[in-house]
Amino acid sequence: MKxxxxxxxxxxxxxxxxxxxxxxxxxCVDKNKDKIINLEKNIIPIYEPGLENLVKKNKDANRLxxxxxxxxxxxxxxxxxxxxxTPARRGDGHADLSYIYEAAEEIAKNLIGYTLVVTKxxxxxxxxxxxxxxIKKINPKVKFDVVSNPxxxxxxxxxxxxxxxxxxxxxxxxxxxxxxxSKIYKPLYLIETPILFTDLKTAELIKYxxxxxxxxxxSYINQMADxxxxxxxxxxxxxxxxGLDKRIGSKFLHPGPGxxxxxxxxxxxALVKTANDYGSNxxxxxxxxxxxxQRKIDMAEKIISSxxxxxxxxxxxxLGLSFKPxxxxxxxxxxxxxxPKLQEKNIQIAAFDPIAMDExxxxxxxxxxxxxxxxxxxNSEVLVILTEWNEFRxxxxxxxxxxxxxxxxxxxxxxxxxNSFCESGFKLIQVGRPTLSSQ
Length: 439
Known about the structure:
CATH superfamily of the largest domain: NAD(P)-binding Rossmann-like Domain
Strand order of the largest sheet: 11-10-9-12-13-14-15
Helix content: 40-55%
Number of helices: 18
C-alpha cells in the first residue's frame, strides 16, 4: 500500500515516518523545495526526540521518501493524508482552511482510481464534507472516500504517542473506507489499541473537544494555585488529592504560567468560533481563553513585583523559552508575553534554552541570549524558570550562589525541590505554594 503525506510539518513528518515504521511505502510531499532537500539529507526541520533516527532508519530501508512532486505522488497513492497547517485566521480566530482546500484541489486534479483521502490536520466540523465537494466538482468521475483521522500527538513524546496511542479516532462513511483505514492501523490492533469509528463530523469535533477539555483542566489547576497562594495551601497536594480520584485523573493538573504551543490556543479559539456560528453556548471555553491570556500578564507582574520599586535596569535571567520541554516549538510560548512586559519596565533580560534558542532569536529582541546556564544567571538579580527542562531541576543553591548577584528565584513550573533551598539564603517563589524565604 502506497501512502502519500501532504505536508512535512510536525504532524505530517511524524505521522509519515511512523507509518513507514509500520512497514508501508510512504512519501512525504511538500512544496518547499529547501525543506525536502534537507530532509533527503536527514536534516530534520523540527526537534522531536527519536525522530531523526527513525527517519534515517526508514529512508535506509527505502520505505520513506521525500518529494516536491505532488502530481505523481497523488496519482500513485492508495491513501493520501492531508497534514497541512490550520493556523488561526488573522483577525477573527477561525481556523484558516486555505491550505486544506488548496490540498483538496491538488488531490482532485491528480486522483487516478479509487483513493482514500484522509484529513490528519485539525479542522472544524464540516471540513470533510467541503473536501468532498471540492473533489467532486473538479473530478466528478473519480472514486474516492474522505476520512477524518485527527492526530493526538504531544510534542516531545510524539513517536510514542503514535506507536502506542490511547486511541485512534476515525470518521468515515463507507465500509470500503473503514476497510482501508483498518489495514493502515492493523499494527495497533496487535497491542489492542481502541479504535473508535464515527461519522466525519463527530471525529472532527472529538479533536477540538479533547484539546479544549485539557485547556480547561490546566486553567482550573492554575486558578486553584492562585487560591492556594492566598490561603497558604500547597497546590501540589491539592492536585494530588483530586488527581487520585479516578473520575478526574492526575494528568494536566500541574500549575504553571499558562498553556501555549501549536494546538491549545488556536483550537480553543476555533471551537468557540464554531459554537458561536451554530448559536451554542460554550462560555466555559471562552472564559478559559481569557483567563489564560491574563495569566501570562499576571506572571510578568509577579516577576516585576519581586524586584521592588527599583526594577529599572535590573537583570532578570530566564531559563526555558520553548512552550514545553523536549521541543523547540516557540508557538504561543508564555515567554513571548512575559518577556516583553518585563522589557517595558526597562528590565534587562538574559535567556537560555537547551534547544529553542535559534527559534527564540527570530521572535524576541534586545535580549542577551546566553550560551549556558552559568552565562545566563551571571550577575542576575532574579532567576525565572519558565520551562521545566530536566537540567534546570538539578540547580542547587551552591551552584546559583557562585554566579547570581541577587537571591530571588521565581519557579513558574515548580521544577525546583523546595527542601533543597531551606536555610539557603534564597527566596524561592513557586506557583500555588507558600514562598520559601530564609536567610
